[in-house]
Write a structure and sequence with these properties.
alpha/beta, Rossmann fold, 29 helices, 13 strands, 62% helix, 7% strand, elongated, glycoprotein, transferase, CAS1 domain-containing protein 1, membrane, NXPE4_C
Length: 755
């Protein structure tokens, strides 16, 4: 893989994804909003100097600052623009030819003691071709003039960003008679002269005039849409302006989805300590392996001198806790190195997403066929049994992965259906944890620590290695908080469990009262942003749930699926009550209810499922649909559960393909952020440039293997970090508290050094 400066790639190469989305070679472009453009260019002076094509670029550029600007004024004269709120000055200077007048203007900036423009964008040639009827003498004079200007531009490049815009090709068939002499052959000759002469005296210097040649590539694809054959269509000019903004602003604003022109972030103190820890773990494990190998070699060839028979080696001793720890951290260290190289080091390419219906729906059909192909009989036939819930998690996770990599969030009907899948995960959280506490009555610390460790281990490691806040991986905090809410609801006095409730039916009403209190609290917090933010703004909660200095994002995420966990708990309560009273039939092949009731419920479920899909597909406004989503998402979830479980033959089967992915669904969801997608899910990781399908196959294979391995590591470490013995568990909890205290201390030191 040929490495290089992503700024050079941004200015010189790329391709169109579809008709309007420009993809630079090897990096991602950020789409700047007006507020971001103003923040970047505050107190800056930008100058565009050249002909009518540069004037068009000037207008597209200032529209990024103020979209209300209209293309008015003298077309063959200077045009000033100023944004007083941000102290931004952008000027267009009419110099249609590279001649003495342009040289004098540029020279005045080099000699003046006044502040020089921060950005200079220059270019001209077509007027010289037109006025001199495309003569060779005009080209010779152009070379002489640009040779005299080049040293001045290079001198300015030491303190300012200087760009020379190469001439775009023309659409010769559409040119008017007065412009027929402007041919692409002539334009190429002028461009070649400009590239050869510019920077000729400063090839090894950092202060160079940046040649803006990408505009030529864009024009080759779009010039046929021009109104006069000479000037680019508006969409192409806007793309050029956005490229300019990315070249200058990415290193200042550091947008997550703008990897072009961004330097590699420096290692933080915590990242350095993590690197040392993983390195020591790898060294420690290698030492243990060498010791074992040496001992094995000694015992391997023990020969009985009397009989001449080879003795069998001694039975291997059990693996020690230290060895399991070092082995797990050794693997984890190698995996985290891969994470860092993929999404923090500028080693691999990153590309923007581009949505098409085929890129989303074809893979969906493909995995559906695979899932059906791997159909097997279940071990048990209860409603939402373990195999069935793993299958459910698996196919939902695969759909969500395809949704993310295809950029389908831009298509509202797909977005609304994916929101239901996320809600279904939370529904399972409510159902699963309620069922466990209700049936087992186990409210011990061991159970709580075990669940919290399995949910949060990978995210905590990624927060350290990738230098990201906990709330960045929003789904894990969401599931963690809901687990604690379920636990608190059922553990707080009076503790009502199935065993107690069977003795007295009044306890069922007591539990329903608890659930009503929970629903009331959820309703209150969802409509009281202030109260919610006060709760999560207290230290140390604020350290976990703040993103960009506030907890608004956390409130928004929590609010989006606020009722579905409650729905999952309520469903579990009703189902377990019916099961206890033997009002449902869960035998193999038997319908859940009597034939008549089953058929009616099945019909209602199918209608409800389709009705929700029709409503979601007709959504026009994302904000309005998100407001309704918390209340109506349960309709499709319950409909699916009933469709999947009422017919006995459907309940008795499951897809082992989907179930396999379901067992590592959490790891898949988190790992995709950095080693399948890129730039924290904003783009796509490119391991193999130029072969999109092959790249997806390779990166997907590695991604799934890594997720599976992390799942195994988490399970191994959970046995050690969360032991069943209470006294040992207490010691481990004190160690964990010490670890997080140290992490907080180092984080505070990091923040202080940054400020």
């Amino acid at each position: 893989f040929k490495g290089g400066d992503t700024c050079e790639y941004l200015l010189s190469s790329g391709r169109f994804l579809g008709e309007k989305v420009w993809q630079p070679h090897s990096c991602m472009m950020h789409k700047y909003k007006n507020s971001e453009a103003k923040n970047c260019l505050v107190d800056k002076h930008v100058v565009f100097i050249g002909d009518s094509r540069i004037r068009q670029l000037f207008y597209s550029f200032i529209k990024l600052i103020n979209p209300q600007v209209k293309e008015e004024g003298n077309k063959h004269g200077n045009i000033p623009f100023e944004d007083k709120s941000a102290s931004i000055k952008v000027d267009f200077l009419w110099y249609p030819e590279v001649n003495g007048s342009m040289r004098q203007r540029i020279k005045s900036w080099t000699e003046s003691s006044a502040a020089k423009p921060h950005i200079i964008v220059a270019g001209a040639a077509t007027w010289s071709i037109k006025i001199h009827n495309g003569s060779n003498e005009a080209l010779t004079q152009y070379k002489i003039n640009i040779t005299s200007i080049a040293p001045l531009l290079e001198k300015l490049a030491k303190t300012s960003d200087v760009y020379w815009v190469l001439q775009d090709p023309v659409y010769e068939d559409m040119l008017s008679e007065s412009r027929k002499m402007i041919t692409n052959e002539k334009i190429d000759a002028y461009n070649e002269a400009a590239v050869r002469i510019l920077n000729s005296s400063s090839r090894n210097s950092k202060a160079k005039v940046k040649v803006f040649s990408v505009s030529k590539l864009i024009a080759q694809e779009t010039i046929m849409k021009s109104t006069d054959g000479l000037h680019l269509p508006e969409s192409s000019r806007d793309t050029n302006a956005m490229i300019l903004m990315n070249v200058y602003c990415n290193k200042i604003m550091k947008p997550i989805d703008g990897s072009c022109c961004q330097p590699q972030p420096p290692l933080t103190l915590i990242q350095k300590l993590a690197f040392c820890f993983f390195t020591l773990s790898i060294i420690g494990y290698l030492i243990i392996c060498l010791i074992h190998r040496n001992n094995y070699q000694k015992s391997k060839s023990c020969t009985d001198l009397e009989s001449g028979e080879e003795k069998k080696p001694a039975i291997s001793t059990p693996v020690s806790t230290l060895e399991i720890l070092l082995h797990s951290f050794c693997k984890l260290g190698l995996i985290m190195t891969y994470f860092y190289l993929c999404d923090r080091a500028n080693l691999f390419m990153k590309e923007n997403k581009y949505y098409t219906h085929s890129s989303f729906f074809i893979p969906i059909v493909y995995i559906l066929v695979l899932g059906v192909f791997y159909t097997e009989n279940t071990k048990e036939t209860k409603v939402l049994n373990r195999e069935q819930t793993d299958e459910w998690k698996g196919w939902m996770q695969l759909v969500i992965l395809i949704y993310h990599i295809s950029g389908a969030s831009t298509f509202l009907p797909v977005y609304m259906h994916i929101r239901v899948l996320v809600a279904a995960y939370l529904f399972q959280t409510g159902y699963g944890h309620f069922s466990y506490f209700w049936i087992k009555g186990d409210f011990g610390v061991y159970r709580v620590c075990q669940v919290l460790f399995r949910l949060n281990f990978l995210v905590v490691v990624l927060c350290i290695v990738m230098d990201r806040p906990y709330q960045f991986y929003y789904f894990v905090p969401l599931v963690t908080v809901w687990f604690m809410i379920i636990y608190a609801t059922l553990a707080i006095w009076p503790q009502i469990v199935q065993k107690k409730a069977n003795g007295n039916c009044l306890w069922h009403f007591g539990l329903l009262l608890k659930l009503i209190c929970l629903l009331t609290c959820i309703y209150f917090l969802s409509y009281s942003q202030g109260a919610f933010e006060k709760i999560f703004s207290f230290w140390p909660l604020s350290k976990c749930f703040e993103l960009n200095g506030n907890v608004y994002e956390w409130w928004f995420r929590w609010k989006l699926d606020r009722y579905v966990v409650f729905h999952g708990m309520l469903f579990a309560f009703v189902y377990l009550a019916l099961q206890k009273r033997q009002m449902i039939s869960e035998g193999k092949g038997d319908p859940l209810f009597s034939n008549r009731v089953s058929n009616v419920l099945l019909f209602i479920s199918i209608v409800s499922f389709l009705a929700y899909s029709i409503w979601a597909s007709s959504c026009k406004n994302k904000t309005e649909c998100n407001e309704l989503h918390p209340s109506v998402s349960v309709v499709q979830i319950l409909a699916f559960v009933l469709i999947r479980n009422i017919p006995g033959y459907v309940r008795s089967m499951y897809s082992s393909f989907f179930a396999w992915f379901g067992k590592i669904s959490l790891e898949l969801f988190i790992c995709q952020y950095h080693i399948w997608l890129a730039a924290d899910t904003k783009g796509i990781l490119v391991l193999i440039p130029g072969y999109p399908m092959f790249n997806v196959l390779v990166s997907t294979f590695i991604f799934v293997c890594v997720a599976h391995e992390i799942s195994q590591i988490t399970n191994d470490l959970a046995q050690i970090v969360v032991p069943k013995d209470n006294s040992t568990l207490l010691k481990r909890l004190l160690c964990v508290a010490g670890f997080f205290s140290g992490l907080h201390l180092f984080s505070a030191m990091q923040d202080q050094s940054r400020h």
